[in-house]
Amino acid sequence: MSRMGRPLLNRRLAEFGTTIFAEMSALAVRTGSINLGQGFPDTDGPEEIREAAVRALRDGRGNQYPPGPGIPELRTAVAEHQRRRYGLGFDPDHEVLVTAGATEAVAASLLALLEPGDEVIALEPYYDSYAACIAMAGGTRVPVTLRPDAASLTYRLDLDELRGAVTDRTRLILLNTPHNPTGTVLTRAELAAVAELACERDLLVVTDEVYEHLVFDGGEHLPIATFPGMRERTVTVGSAGKTFSFTGWKVGWVTATAELVRAVRSAKQFLTYVSAGPFQYAVAEALRLPDAYFDSLREDLRAKRDLLSGGLAEAGFEVFRPAGTYFVTTDIRPLGERESKGGDGFAFCRALPERCGVVAIPNAVFYDHQGEGAPFVRFAFCKRADVLEEAVGRLKSLAA
């Protein structure tokens, strides 16, 4: 539909319609399928943190507009968390900004830091909001593709390709580690190379680290802001949703230099201005939970990763076992030409609910070069063990 001969939708957003998550979630409801598409838990987080939100509501804390940068208690808790976990010192009054989840944090950062025509390097496949946020800021996305290694069944960053993607128009690198959807955790050597490149070419880095506490198998999360020369050029994005299993609360944050935070806040104040008042008080308490909580969360998700990964392998998928996050990527081609719909992830995922009552997401939606992601499908394992077991049982019918 158009008016006065012009499309209603801004041309920057013309390529973005209904998200695949909305489409597949609606399909899950219509077919009564198990939804392993969207990355949200099917149980709530710690009871004491939920009760902290209830207390805040009852005590009238946060029921009206909280301070624009976020409540002092949460900004202090975020700064303490960054110092305790990573040795990063941030001034809670000037170097921490609370946002409406990580999605707003990324959006506000890109809107603040980009001029029309600036190039943004993003690791492909990438979380779908990245492309839309770059477009809204008038930037140009330049994908650098993480490619699957057949020997190790992991995805890795080609550092030569990354270096070759930088031009005189490049403004920033948009990182995500642990990485959604591949589950890759960038290594110390990879991050050091990114940091060296950013310093050499005077680039900013926006880094989405929402899965920081979900690194499995003895690995570690390494914030790029800890590398030489990166503290002053990095905007780090964090979030409570994935760590505490309260994704609906939409509490995120930015940590950066005072100058960068001021820039991001200039954009953020005209998006939501403020949000999630009572939940901010609860998240401040959550960030101070003992290390045992974070260890237990990681081990619980690791066991669920193994449960789903093993079942997918038995069902005939090639499985790229993730080093972190909520997600496991599979190659559907080993299922055979007919069962895999010719290796077409879109067709496979749209047919899967009717075939065996499970919903997944085609990785191709996370690519500019969709052919690179065509045969790959993502499943979420942030569900109850009994739900994953039922899903695995259904998926094994593909191999029957």
CATH class of the largest domain: Alpha Beta
Number of helices: 14
pLDDT averaged over residues? 95
Unreliable sequence segments = none
**Record field, number of beta strands:** 17
**Oligomeric assembly:** single chain
**Helix share, percent:** 25-40%
Descriptive labels:
four-stranded antiparallel β-sheet, 17% strand, seven-stranded mixed β-sheet, 400 residues, Aspartate Aminotransferase, domain 1, 2 domains, alpha/beta, Aspartate Aminotransferase, domain 2, 14 helices
In summary, what is this structure?
Helix content is 39%, strand content 17%.
How is the secondary structure organized here?
Layout: E1 2-3, E2 6-7, H1 20-31, E3 34-35, H2 47-58, H3 72-86, E4 96-99, H4 101-113, E5 119-124, H5 128-136, E6 140-145, E7 147-149, E8 154-156, H6 159-165, E9 170-176, H7 188-200, E10 204-208, E11 234-239, H8 241-244, E12 252-255, H9 258-268, H10 277-286, H11 291-314, E13 318-320, E14 327-331, H12 345-356, E15 358-359, E16 361-362, H13 370-373, E17 376-380, H14 385-395
Helix pairs in contact: 1-12, 2-10, 3-10, 4-5, 4-9, 11-14
Please give a structural write-up.
With 400 residues, the chain is α/β, with parallel strands linked by helices. It folds into two domains: 2-45 and 292-399, Alpha-Beta Complex (Aspartate Aminotransferase, domain 1); 47-290, Type I PLP-dependent aspartate aminotransferase-like (Major domain) (Aspartate Aminotransferase, domain 2), CATH 3.40.640.10. The chain is built from 14 helices and 17 strands. The chain has helices at residues 20-31, 47-58, 72-86, 101-113, 128-136, 159-165, 188-200, 241-244, 258-268, 277-286, 291-314, 345-356, 370-373, 385-395; strands at 2-3, 6-7, 34-35, 96-99, 119-124, 140-145, 147-149, 154-156, 170-176, 204-208, 234-239, 252-255, 318-320, 327-331, 358-359, 361-362, 376-380. The strands form five sheets. Strands 4-12-11-10-9-5-6 form a seven-stranded mixed β-sheet, with helices on both faces. Helix 2 packs antiparallel against helix 10 and helix 4 crosses helix 9 (258-268). The longest helix is centred in the last third of the chain and has 24 residues, at 291-314.
